[in-house]
Automatic annotation (TrEMBL):
Protein's name according to its UniProt entry: Putative methyltransferase
Any one GO molecular-function label of the UniProt entry: methyltransferase activity
Any one GO biological process: methylation
SUPFAM superfamilies per UniProt: S-adenosyl-L-methionine-dependent methyltransferases
Residues spanning the membrane: none
Keywords (A to Z) from UniProt: Methyltransferase, Transferase
Length: 370
């Protein structure tokens, strides 16, 4: 909106129009907020916020009454921007998401799939809404086997919904499920079947204000997904990203945050154990949420990306499992009959048909000549 840009220029606000919107959202959500509290809420220096307040008062957007308040014109502006306060999901919405989630196909661990629990998907949607990242925004989700798009569309009322809600995923099974749910519940989710190792189509570039991603567990996967995310965002700073990524050792985490920085993002908040998954043993069934803002820098990547991005490709291995009934040993993994334990469970023990197995550990790669 041009008014926000004009105020940002007049107040010399480096955060631009997004910074003005953040200030308006904080005033809308905190009646009669003091200047000091407002500065603390939006994480800006007090003199800077005071300059913005003056510019908004000159335009009859704000006034003072035992704190900072919205005028009627300001209330209309906030409504037009789609700034809303959002609580958590009602129980019936959680039941709907659980029902949709129960239709998901078996997780494809070759794609590092591990399905988030429905409560986690709603937690993401609520958290993003509380940070004014959804209503009236163009929102894109890069990889959505967790059905975060459905949680967003269910959670927000019609007048609060994103302007555009887009999913990009490599798995046609997930795309088909989201399309079916979108049609059944009138969710207006736009789906694209696409491999992010290939450059995004033009209509998905430079057009979004918010993104979500829960990338493969590898650093190469993180780099690819964040680079593609960067390419989806509008110009200017202050666009929000919500990254779900597993906990790593300190040396690997150094690489994680180096990639985040190189892709032009600045972490704002890190919440440990935010996401809970069915499966996902590689990351201990949990991961953290990293909320980020974009700077003006954008990451660039060639049209195709040839590095291995999935755990199974970067660390091919075999594991051994024993049947819990007859004890027969089965090998799972690279160059085995079963590529992962879920595939073995589905078929069952070749000796007795049982589908419960006990891990017997990782099989060390045999050296040539031994």
């Amino acid at each position: 909106m041009k008014l926000l840009e004009q105020v940002a220029v007049a107040a010399a606000l480096r955060e631009g129009a997004e910074g003005i919107r953040n200030i308006l959202a904080a005033v809308a959500h905190n009646k009669n907020i003091s200047l000091k509290e407002l500065a603390n809420t939006v994480h800006m220096p007090l003199p800077v916020v005071a300059a913005v307040r003056r510019e908004l008062e000159r335009r009859y957007i704000l006034y003072r009454d035992k704190g900072i308040c919205l005028t009627l014109k300001g209330i209309r502006l906030v409504s037009d921007l789609g700034i809303q306060k959002t609580s958590g999901p009602e129980q019936n919405l959680l039941s709907i998401l659980k029902e949709i989630g129960s239709k998901r196909p078996e997780a494809n661990v070759a794609l590092d799939q591990a399905y988030a629990r429905p409560e986690t998907s709603f937690r993401r949607a609520t958290y993003a809404s509380q940070h004014d990242a959804l209503s009236g925004r163009n929102v894109i989700i890069l990889g959505d086997d967790d059905l975060t798009s459905i949680a967003i569309a269910l959670l927000l009322k019609k007048e609060e919904k994103p302007k555009r809600l887009v999913v990009v995923d490599i798995d046609s099974r997930i795309i088909d499920l989201i399309n079916e749910a979108s049609e059944t519940y009138d969710l207006n989710i736009e789906c694209h079947l696409h491999d992010l190792r290939i450059s995004l189509p033009t209509e998905l570039k430079y057009n979004f204000q918010t993104f979500f991603t829960d990338p493969p567990y590898t650093l190469a996967g993180l780099e690819l997904f964040l680079t593609r995310a960067s390419a989806t965002l509008e110009g200017g700073s202050g666009k929000q990203g919500f990254l779900s990524f597993g906990n790593k050792d300190p040396d690997t985490d150094h690489g994680v945050f180096h990639i985040i920085s190189q892709c032009g993002f600045i972490p704002q908040e890190i919440i440990k154990n935010f996401n809970n998954y069915h499966g996902g043993t590689v990351i201990g069934n949990i991961s953290r949420m990293i909320r980020m803002l974009s700077g003006t820098q954008r990451a660039h990547l060639s049209s195709s990306f040839n590095n291995a991005i999935y755990t199974a490709d970067t660390n091919p291995s075999q594991r051994s499992y024993n049947c819990s009934i007859c004890g027969k040993n089965h090998r799972v993994g690279n160059n085995c009959l079963y590529s992962h334990i879920e595939a073995l469970k589905k078929i069952g023990c070749s000796n007795c048909g049982n589908n419960i197995f006990n891990s017997a550990g990782k099989i060390l790669e045999e050296k040539n000549g031994e």
